[in-house]
């Protein structure tokens, strides 16, 4: 019997609990909650965990195997208490301040948003993203573009990271504009630490947002997952600088999948920091933009200039690992080692799938076995 220490019939507690149980983006969890509601879905899961209900076909057996380990010691009230101490709030689909553009994600829509600050998006929004290791040129363009967008009453959305993200947030704050940072970890752990003061300033202008609860650690898989939220929140996505392989290209690809227009800022042909932008324009139909006015034109057409053939598709730009192996590698501790059960709980995957992924990672030289535990390869 699986008994949770909180009221599973409380819709807000149940939705918050699902954001802890399911590792985003989880299409099975999204479909289950959409069809049953968070409370009935959580009740079904606890019944399955207790052996009273058959989960159904193989996809559901695999999904449940990833969820059940996270039920152990689950008391979502702790995370909600942390959020309350930070002056934050939980925002659910259907709430007055829920950003409806996220609904375009379908079953990959967040199950809940953990928010510090004010409105997540005020009016029209544009996502400004780019390389962490940016050049002074890229930093200047991002800040200048953010200033123009903010002065036009546009919310600037980015990821709070070093480089282009930080320049976009700073530019917006410099003219008292509204900016929102979407984090890969919990809102109690402002990341990166070097941007703590900047992110605290963002909470006074717009909001710092995450789809995972307080206490959640940012990981590569969560950075990739949060990119879809940045893309969905913006009426357009602009990549200011990006290397040939860059997380910003993932955001652009997700924006195009959502029929959002994508812009890219050109740079020197000799600059590796602009190689990804040039690639977007050459191969994937991104629109060349150089200033805020051109971005606003891009938002005005709202994707009408793109045909289905023009829109970018995911091209595996970021990693040579399959999704399961990527999540398992993320779940391995940075220092020391962990048994398979701990890795499975952290990754939100069945133990059998984790063992298979660890085998592949070991063959690839990315993980190593140390007795009964596993560690990252040095």
TrEMBL record:
Domain of life: Bacteria
Span of domain DprA winged helix: 316-369
Domain Smf/DprA SLOG per the UniProt entry, residue ranges: 90-298
Gene Ontology biological-process annotations: DNA-mediated transformation
Gene3D superfamilies to which the protein is assigned, alphabetical: 3.40.50.450, Winged helix-like DNA-binding domain superfamily/Winged helix DNA-binding domain (1.10.10.10)
InterPro entries: DprA, DprA_WH, DrpA_SLOG, WH-like_DNA-bd_sf
Range of residues in the leader sequence: none
Pfam families: DNA_processg_A, WHD_DprA
Entry similarity comment: Belongs to the DprA/Smf family.
Name listed for the protein in its UniProt record: DNA protecting protein DprA
Organism listed in the record: Georgenia soli
């Amino acid at each position: 019997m699986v008994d949770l220490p909180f009221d599973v019939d409380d819709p807000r507690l149940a939705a918050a609990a699902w954001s802890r149980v399911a590792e985003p983006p989880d299409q099975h969890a999204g479909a289950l909650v959409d069809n049953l509601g968070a409370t009935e879905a959580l009740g079904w899961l606890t019944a399955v965990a207790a052996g009273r209900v058959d989960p159904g076909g193989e996809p559901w057996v695999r999904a449940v195997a990833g969820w059940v380990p996270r039920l152990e010691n689950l008391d979502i009230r702790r995370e909600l208490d942390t959020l309350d101490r930070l002056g934050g709030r939980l925002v659910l689909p259907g709430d007055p301040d829920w950003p409806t553009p996220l609904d375009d994600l379908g079953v990959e829509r967040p199950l809940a948003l953990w928010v510090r600050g004010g409105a997540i998006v005020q009016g029209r929004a544009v996502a400004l993203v780019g390389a962490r290791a940016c050049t002074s040129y890229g930093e200047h363009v991002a800040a200048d573009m953010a200033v123009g967008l903010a002065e036009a009453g546009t919310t600037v959305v980015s990821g709070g990271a070093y480089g282009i993200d930080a320049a976009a947030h700073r530019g917006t704050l410099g003219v008292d504009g509204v900016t929102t940072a979407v984090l890969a970890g919990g809102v109690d752990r402002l990341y990166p630490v070097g941007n703590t003061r900047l992110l605290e300033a963002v909470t006074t202008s717009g909001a710092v947002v995450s789809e995972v609860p307080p206490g959640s650690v940012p990981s590569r898989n969560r950075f990739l997952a949060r990119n879809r939220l940045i893309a969905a929140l913006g009426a357009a996505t602009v990549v200011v600088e990006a290397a040939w392989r860059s997380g910003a290209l993932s955001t652009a690809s997700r924006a195009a999948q959502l029929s959002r227009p994508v812009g890219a800022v050109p740079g020197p042909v000799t600059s590796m920091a602009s190689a990804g932008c040039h690639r977007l324009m050459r191969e994937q139909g991104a629109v060349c933009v150089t200033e805020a006015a051109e971005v606003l034109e891009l938002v005005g057409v709202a994707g009408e200039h793109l045909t289905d053939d023009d829109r970018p598709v995911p091209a595996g730009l970021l990693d040579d690992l399959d999704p399961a192996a990527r999540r398992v590698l993320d779940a391995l501790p940075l220092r020391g080692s962990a048994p398979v059960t701990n890795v499975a709980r952290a990754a939100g995957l069945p133990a059998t799938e984790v063992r298979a992924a660890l085998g592949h990672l070991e063959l690839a030289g990315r993980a190593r076995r140390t007795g009964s535990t596993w560690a990252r390869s040095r």
